[in-house]
Amino acid sequence: MTRRRAPVSSPVALTVAGSDSGGGAGIQADLKTMEAHGVFATSVVTAVTAQNTLGVERSHVLPVAEIDAQYDAVATDFDLGAVKTGMLATEPVIDLVAERVADADAPAVVDPVMVAASGDRLLDPDAEAAYESLIGEATLVTPNADEAAVLTGVEPTDRERVREAGEELVSMGADAALVKGGHVGDGGTVTDTLVSTLPDGEPTVRRFEHPRIDTDATHGSGCTLSSAVAAHLAHGETLGYAVEAATAFMERAVRYGLDVGEGPGSVHHLAALREAADRHRTITDVAEVVEAFVDRDVSRLVPEVGMNVVGATEYAERVGETAAVEGRITRTLSGAAPNRGVRLGASSHVARFLLAAREFDPDLRFAVNCRFDDEIEAATGELDGPVTEYDRDAEPADASGTMGWGARRAFGTVDADEPTPVAVLDRGAVGKEAIVKVVAETPERLGERVFTLLDAVDA
């Protein structure tokens, strides 16, 4: 017997851009990103580039008639929820796409690709002026600082000049402009500035800030960001939410970039998707560690506040992406037992400590808090790696939280060529119980380290 078909309805988005044979940018990045957001991605290829992580070797622009035929094939068959443009290369191509976008009943995100991350030029200098007509049809235009300067004549060197550049792009007809801040300044924060028009015509400014990531592997970042915005718009979400979600998505994609090729590498277009896929495995890992702790009876190591085992997904960035015991593990008359099961976001303190530690060593995936006393402190000398500590009395009044501050104190002072600490001593304070936090890359290693402590104090 044949099975009954069960089709799935999905919004559709279109990318009009050049092909990147290296797979990190262009059409390839757009398709990966859109599909990662649950959007059926269609494409119109404007140019073929011989490109990799080192740079662009050759570029060939397709005839305008071929580009038009591709667009017509997509537009006559699919109900487009959003259109995104990337590398358009020449004035005739820009003119064609501007006409097509004007006729489309869908929001349009215009990424004015002019220069590749490697510095190779991807736009004919004579075509720069042609962008004004396409910008006039845009729901959102997403230039980096260099592109914004070319398009507006305003050098976005500081917050005020960035705002001016965004307002100039809006005055050219775009509903909104997102001036990306990755190229602005060399400080520790990246600020993307969204300028849009209010109903009365006055511009409004919204800034999205995130820590600058120490990497040169940003190949494809502009394509990925604009495609993420387009995908959210295809889902019917508001522009403000689309930009907020896309910038957060981009931060994760850059931090967990792919170490591929001989160049700096590529952003990880599927990092968020992989994070979600890793959640069930992480929950299972934590549950197995908890079961092992109960079977072995680790009650001697359970603090008064209770013990929690926390596991972070491979791409975790927030507490909700960590698994832990709901209600913690407590001592009972018969040993140690969890109050309830394992779920995402069940821990606060230990999870925030683990996430902060991962800023220094992203391979750390698991952590547990144990009782602190003289015997257990002595037992940490039996562990298979260095042990460090922090003093709560040194915590500044303006610290954002003890767990994050403590992790930064414990791991931030370790040189890059030294091994990562395997345990951190927190000697407590008035009203705060002293704790030993054990960390590990795998659930097996976490269990081994806790059992090492238990064997030492039971000896």
Describe the protein.
With 459 residues, the protein is of the alpha/beta class. It has 2 domains: 12-268, Ribokinase (UDP-N-acetylmuramoyl-L-alanine:D-glutamate ligase, 3-Layer(aba) Sandwich); 278-458, Class II aldolase/adducin N-terminal domain (L-fuculose-1-phosphate Aldolase). It is 35% helix and 22% strand. The protein contains 14 helices and 18 strands. The strands form 4 sheets. A 7-stranded mixed beta sheet has the order 14-11-10-15-18-17-16. Strands 3-2-1-4-5-6 form a 6-stranded mixed beta sheet, with helices on both faces. Strands 7-8-9 form a 3-stranded antiparallel beta sheet.
- The residue ranges in which pLDDT falls below 50 over 5 or more consecutive positions are none
Tally the beta strands.
18
Q: State the domain count.
A: 2
Secondary-structure arrangement, i.e. CATH architecture of the largest domain: 3-Layer(aba) Sandwich
Number of helices: 14
Instruction: Examine the coordinates and then state which fold CATH places here, giving the name of the CATH topology of the largest domain.
Output: UDP-N-acetylmuramoyl-L-alanine:D-glutamate ligase
Domain Thiamine-phosphate synthase ThiN: 286-449
EC number: 2.7.1.49, 2.7.4.7
InterPro entries: Aldolase_II/adducin_N_sf (IPR036409), HMP/HMP-P_kinase_dom (IPR004399), PM/HMP-P_kinase-1 (IPR013749), Ribokinase-like (IPR029056), ThiN (IPR019293)
Protein name: Bifunctional hydroxymethylpyrimidine kinase/phosphomethylpyrimidine kinase
